[in-house]
Design brief:
By secondary structure, the chain is α+β, with helices and mostly antiparallel strands. Helix 1 runs antiparallel to helix 3, helix 1 packs across helix 8 and helix 3 packs across helix 8. The protein is about 30% helix and about 25% strand. The strands form five sheets. The protein has a six-stranded mixed β-sheet, sandwiched between helices.
Length: about 350
């Protein structure tokens, strides 16, 4: 099948996806749409929850395995939409609709790439996964699928990067912190004010710089984003709670950084999760070298994707623009999809790992 025909069919599938509401944890209907479309195209589909898996048939188990992955869920429509977010429309070479850019365009482009490459003998075995719950890092998404797939040598994560190569991606930890004091009457010199007890730790989060700085992601970034204390104006608060958003570069594992934080502050620190790790791929990796030969640029991505849940080598690349993600009147260019398919194929065709 030609690239042109694949692009045409990909755009039609994307229109069907846009017309089917698919916010995170509510992807069943769009998963049905995608599964039925794949079956009509003669693909052998395995459904796991709302995740859809296709394996390349009749391929040697001795070959390296490449995973092509993107997600089928969307955020809720932004309040500023002037168009119907669930009505796909094409104007001026742009396909408008919720999820068109993030990440419907990358998803259908990777699917087209899978269909094209399995027509020829390659040096690897391909698996395609359209996963759910990416926008909420849900446990029923790609994380639940990976044990079903076996060993993966390389993952290509489809997200809107303007078809440039994200060779590193920040991880995330959210910390719930608590400083303790002793209640008392505000009119008298009594009690221990928990807000004041929290201030040294808050200042540490504001000013501390971790030693290891990434070439692509820069330093670890910590931001105090929420704070709560006190019951009324005349009571010295005995507890101050605050939340810290920690964006981790690939120089640290979350568990390592968490222990360093706990050893440095006086407040209690409780992590919500350490599962969303940063990632990076070596610049000497064959897929990076192939991309650079094609003139693609490399960069570090501050936004998180399902890469954070993949414990193997990954790279993030896809058509569309991250700046359009989660915005009102989302769109993707039809030429972006066509170029995405063409570039994915050029990167992967004949690649040796």
């Amino acid at each position: 099948m030609t690239k042109e025909k694949l692009a045409e069919e990909s755009i039609e599938l994307l229109k069907k996806m846009i017309a089917t509401p698919s916010t995170s944890r509510n992807e069943s209907d769009v998963a049905d749409v995608i599964q039925n479309w794949m079956l009509e195209k003669g693909l052998l589909v395995n459904r796991f929850g709302n995740n859809i898996i296709i394996r390349q048939e009749n391929c040697s188990i001795d070959k390296p395995v490449i995973l092509l992955n993107s997600h089928i869920d969307t955020v809720k429509p932004a309040s500023g939409y002037t168009r119907d977010p669930f009505c796909p429309s094409v104007e001026d070479g742009k396909l408008w609709g919720l999820g068109s850019n993030d990440a419907g365009g990358p998803m259908v482009s990777l699917l087209a790439t899978f269909r094209y490459l399995i027509q020829t003998e390659q040096n690897y075995h391909l698996i395609f996964v359209a996963s759910c719950e990416e926008e909420v890092s849900g446990k029923n998404g790609i994380e639940s699928v990976l044990p079903q797939l076996g060993h993966i040598d390389l993952g290509i994560v489809g997200e809107p990067t303007m078809m440039q190569m994200a060779v590193a991606e920040k991880g995330l930890m959210v910390l719930d912190c608590t400083a303790h004091g002793k209640s008392g009457h505000a009119a008298r010199n009594e009690g221990i004010n928990a807000i004041y007890e929290a201030l040294p730790s808050i200042d540490w989060f504001r000013t501390h710089l971790f030693e290891r700085v990434s070439q692509f992601l820069g330093p670890v970034k910590m931001s105090v984003t929420q704070i709560e204390a006190g019951t009324q104006h005349n009571v010295v608060p005995d507890m101050c709670k605050f939340v810290v958003d920690v964006r981790v570069n690939e120089m640290y594992k979350n568990t390592e950084l968490l222990q360093m934080i706990k050893d440095s502050v006086t407040c209690d620190v409780k992590e919500r999760s350490t599962r969303l790790n940063s990632s990076a791929i070596e610049m000497s990796h064959p897929i990076v070298k192939r991309g650079m030969e094609l003139g693609l640029k490399t960069f570090g991505s501050p936004t998180m994707s399902d890469q954070a849940l993949m414990p193997f080598t990954t790279i993030k690349i896809g058509p569309g623009d991250s700046a359009r993600s989660h915005t009102a009147d989302e769109y993707i260019g039809l030429e972006e999809i066509k170029n995405g398919i063409d570039t994915y194929i050029k990167i992967l065709d004949g690649l040796s790992l």
